[in-house]
Amino acid sequence: MRRVHPPLPSAGAAYLDPRGDGRALRVSWHSEADVVVLSLWRDNVCTGTFQLALEDVPGLVDLLSARYRDTSGEEGSYQPDPLRRVRDGA
C-alpha cells in the first residue's frame, strides 16, 4: 500500500523516520509569525507540533551541526540525501 503524505508547505520539508509506520517530521517556515514549526506526522495525521522562535533557529542549527561533526568526524557542510527527504506529491 502506498503511504499518503501531507502536502508540504511552500517553505519547508518533511523527513521520514527510519522506524517506518508512516512517521515523519515536517518543518515549515512561517516568517509572518516569526516561527519555524516542527510537526510530527503519522501517515496523514499530525500528532504534535512545536513552534521554534526564529531567533532560536541559529542555536538549534549550531547544536545539530556540532553534534553531527562530532559523530561523523566530517568537516564541511552537510548535504542531505535527497532520497531521505519526502517531497510534495511523493
Q: What is the domain total for the residues?
A: 1
**Helix fraction by DSSP (H/I, runs of at least 4):** 10-25%
- Helix and strand run: EEEEHE
Major beta sheet summary: 5 strands, antiparallel
Rg over CA atoms:
14 Å
Structural class: alpha+beta
Overall mean confidence score, pLDDT = 78
Kindly report the spatial arrangement of strands forming the biggest sheet. Answer: 4-3-2-1-5
| Overall outline | flat
**How many DSSP helices?**
1
- SS elements, strand count: 5
- What low-confidence regions span 5 or more consecutive residues with pLDDT below 50? 82-90
Task: Characterise this structure.
- It is a single chain.
- It is built from one helix and five strands.
- It is an alpha+beta fold and 90 residues long.
- The chain has one domain.
- It is flat.
- The two termini are 13 Å apart.
- The C terminus is likely disordered.
Question: How would you summarize the topology of this molecule?
Answer:
Blueprint: E1 12-16, E2 23-30, E3 35-42, E4 45-53, H1 57-72, E5 85-86
Antiparallel strand pairs: 1-2, 1-5, 2-3, 3-4
